[in-house]
Structure formats: structure tokens, C-alpha cells
Amino acid sequence: MTMPVTPLLAADIIIEMVDRPERPIVLIERNNPPFGWALPGGFVDVGECLEQAAVREALEETSLRVTLTTLLGCYSAPQRDPRGHTVSAVYVAEARGEPQARDDAKHAALFTLSTWPAPLAFDHATILEDYRQFRHSGRLAPLRLPG
Amino acid sequence: MTMPVTPLLAADIIIEMVDRPERPIVLIERNNPPFGWALPGGFVDVGECLEQAAVREALEETSLRVTLTTLLGCYSAPQRDPRGHTVSAVYVAEARGEPQARDDAKHAALFTLSTWPAPLAFDHATILEDYRQFRHSGRLAPLRLPG
Asked: Which residues make Cβ contacts (< 8 Å) with residue A100, sequence separation at least 6?
């Protein structure tokens, strides 16, 4: 059969630093376009599962070994990534220690729920708003149908 | 930039017939390889979000207009689809009426939690076991890391 063309696939990770007060999360400042602050994450390789991709990307960009806890949701709006239609599975994860920016990340820094940096790349402002709700209520990301 | 190659992306749907006793679900018998019974679903088009793909595929294969209720989980093991590495977002949905097989589906039939048909294509036995747990406990699909 002819294989179809489908959107690109990425995994992004909301890393909670569980050894700090208020359990801050890690954001990175991107080295490549689109610039701005963003969740650590990246494209999934053929041959690795989503969970592996999330753990690998977290390590590559923040030097942290994370333990995934929850699938917050999937984000798939066609315009969310200016490079082309990319669907992201977003995981919540736990880590301890000191993040150090590497690879695609220029800086890594910790932020609490009340202080996101700006601008945030992609649709990460939406994702972080969903995460804020999740922290408050335990509710996962809502399903979204356009129109 | 050079765009990466990532796994293919699909959406599958567990359609609960909410107008019937025991809320049975719809499975289809596939017209194309891999043969066997399976959840309705298919590849996501570039330019449509996952939720749209799930609603579209449900309609195309079962003639049912579904309302999505929950993202059960993402299934991404590299060997789960013999046609090549395909990641599936699996939604639970509700519908009323009479399913009628169309498109990629040879037959559509209703099954309760106690009676899956065999063989099931892809990793749909795993997905349906997760769904059985979800029906019992409300717990979503577990995260899975190999090894």
C-alpha cells in the first residue's frame, strides 16, 4: 500500500522539580526558531515510543532524568507549530536536581504556577494554562474540536 | 530546516452506544490488511486536528456521528502496526442509532465488555483491556516504557 502523509509527531514534557518548594517546572529558552521560552520536547523518532521520546528529550535539553507521571493531553491544532503541522503528546513528569540547558536549549530555568515567562513559543501558553488547571483540580486537558 | 521523519499518526475510537443496555461498543471487521476485528479509526490528515480525525473516521467507517468524551491514551509501541511505526490517539466517544459498515470496514458489530471477537488487529486487545479497566475504575491507559 502507499503510506499516507500524516502530521509530524512530537513529545513535550512538563517537568516538576519535586525537591523544591512549590514544585516549580522547567522551561527552556530555545536556540532555534521559533524562538522564545518553551517546554522541553522535540520530535519523536521512528522506532521509539512516545514515552521514550519524552524521557530522551527531557534529558537532552535539561540534563534531567525524569519519571513520567501523566499524559496531560494531545495538542494538534494545525497552526500550532509554524514549521508545519505537528501534533504533540504532552507529559507531566517528576525530577530532582539541577536542570542544565543543552542541545536545542539556550537556557533552562524554573518557574512557579504564577510566573510564566514571555513570549512562549508554539501553543505552550495554552498547554500551561491546561497544566495550571490540572494542578488545581486534577483535570486533564480538554478535548478540542474547532468551530 | 530539514523536516524530520516521525512515526505516522492515527486516531482510533471506542464508540459507546449509549442508547443500548450495557453500553456496548462498536468494532469493525477490516476490509484491508491487517485483517481481523478492530476499533474504527485511521490515519490523521495534515491540516486536521486529532479530534476531527476521530470524528471523521468514526463516521466514515460506522456511519455514526460521535461525541468524543475522553482521551483514553496514546499507543506508540514501534511494532504495534505491521505497516510501519504508527502512533494512535485513542478516544472514547458516545453515539446513538445503528452502526453501518462503510469504507475500510466490511462489517460493524456491537460487543459488550465480556465478549471481544478474535482475532483483533494491531494492539487493539491491549487497548480494549485498558478500556475495560477504564469502564471499571475510571483510570486512563497507563504510561508504558519498554524494558
From this structure: A62, A63, A108
